[in-house]
Amino acid sequence: MVFSNKTFKFIIAAFLVCLSFTGFANPTQDTIQTPTQTTAATAHDAHGEEAASHETHGEPTDLKSKIEAYKMHHVLDAHDFTLFSDEAEGKHYGFPLPIILWDNGLQIFSSSKFNHGESVAESNGNYYRIGHDEKIYKVDGPTGELTGDHHHPTNVKPLDLSITKSVLVMFVVAFIMVWVFTGLAKSYAKNGGISAGFGRLFEPIVLYIRDEIAIPNIGEKHYKKYMSYLLTVFFFVWFLNIFGLTPLGINVTGNIAVTAGLAIITALITNFTANKTYWGHIFWMPGVPTPMKIILAPIELLGVIIKPFSLMIRLYANIFAGHVVLMSLIALIFLFKSWIGGSLSFLLSFALSTIEILVALLQAYIFTMLSALYFGSANEEHHHDEAHH
Fold first, then answer.
1. CA-CA distance, 355 to 358, in Å (whole number)?
2. Core vs surface per residue 78-116: b (16+ CB within 10 A) or e
3. Quick one: which of 318, 315, 305, 316 has its CA closest to 367?
């Protein structure tokens, strides 16, 4: 979907004009109240005290607070897989996941014991509760509560090795990749080098990564030993990004722990397969005066850490921000309470969702391209340096 400048300006102008018709402000009330109104006001005050009590315990009561809580819950990981919920009846439809903790030994139980964060789970005499940050904390007993700030409890956290929603999706994506590309490889052997089956849809992408990313950046001599990783990381990130656009509430690549793990793998491969020329450029650059070598060596060494850090932040920030912005636009439909404002919010959400499909592919491409660049710098030949000098 492509918008011209005039069309885009018209949409923005119409959106701003319609804001004046949505009425965010509270309606005005008469200062003189009837006895019935006074009774209603008293009941409202009592309800307000109850709502304040809920807010004290960290439970949102008003619409805006509920939306903010839902957005944060959407981008966080979870210990159960909830497909959808019925807030009116307080029911959740989905399935539990295994909880694996290391706390005075191995503790294994189902996440259904937490009752979606409303109950305390017991395992071998130990009691645990899930906080609003979706982390598991240890409590004193079957009625134990979290201490300190509700969003940052001070309770002890056991080592959590659970199969969370993000971990489950990564397993699913790994299975899909093995199934698709194993079938593609077998079809080459059966058909004399000609692809067949569902995997043939991805053959042009595999060839593009080889011919346009790996060979130009790494070189004909060394690219083959990195191809398996480049293909794996491209399709892994891409498939995870696509899963994140589904209504299932999956935000794997928007989790900084996942992007950090991928960036660390790239850094380890780069540094452990690097040749002497690569390390020579870091610690003792050729053709540079000795005093400058001493000054530049720590800076170059810092670059070894900055490169994977930039990989981690770039993927995490783009995917996380995309989820938050999209959820915010969808939330405007409920805040406007107007068919004009809701329609405009829906159109903007649809347009952003279309862009996010491109972003999902683009971020996988950028991560793979930068990884190939780092691998190429680690295998640069010495004669290239002499030509430059």
1. 5
2. bbbbbeeeeeeeeeeeeebbebebebeeebebebeebeb
3. 315
Which string of DSSP letters, residue by residue, matches 284-322? Answer: S-TTS-HHHHHHHHHHHHHHHHHHHHHHHHHHHHHHHHH
- Asked whether residue 240 carries a pLDDT value surpassing 50, the answer given is yes
Reference 223, options 372, 64, 327; nearest CA is 372
**Domain range list for the chain:** 78-163, 166-388
DSSP letters, 121-178, are: EEETTEEEEE-TTS-EEEESSTT----EETTEE-S---EE----HHHHHHHHHHHHHH
**Number of other CB atoms surrounding residue 277 within 10 Å:** 17
**Tokens of residue 125, six digits:** 């005499």
Q: What is the pLDDT of residue 260?
A: 94
Question: Is this prediction's pTM over 0.90?
Answer: no
pLDDT digits (tens, 9 = 90+) for 162-218: 999 999 999 999 999 999 998 888 888 888 777 777 778 898 999 999 999 999 999
Measured from the Cβ of residue 384, the count of other Cβ atoms closer than 10 Å reads 10
pLDDT in tens, 245-294: 887 768 899 889 999 999 999 999 999 998 888 887 777 777 777 787 78
Is residue 144 within 8 A of residue 127, CB to CB? The reply is yes
Backbone dihedral angles phi then psi of residue 155, each to the nearest 5 degrees: -65, 160
| Model pLDDT, residue 76 | 78
Stronger pLDDT, 48 or 340, i.e. the higher one: 340
Whether 372 and 226 have beta carbons less than 8 Å apart is answered as yes
How far apart, in whole angstroms, are the C-alpha atoms of residue 244 and residue 253? 8
In order of 46, 141, 190, 271, the CA distances from 253 in angstroms are: 44, 36, 36, 24
pLDDT attached to residue 191: 81
Q: Taking the CA of residue 369 as centre, how many other CA atoms within 13 Å lie in the half-sphere pointing to its CB?
A: 10
Q: What letter represents residue 326's amino acid? A: L
Instruction: Please count the residues of the chain.
Output: 389
User: What is the distance, to the nearest Å, from the Cα of residue 336 to the centroid of all Cα atoms in its chain?
Assistant: 28
Backbone angles phi, psi at 95, to 5 degrees: -150, 150
| Dist CA 225 CA 272 (whole Å) | 13
Task: Assess contact for 95 and 86: CB atoms under 8 A.
Answer: no
- Residue 229 CA to residue 376 CA, distance in Å, equals 14
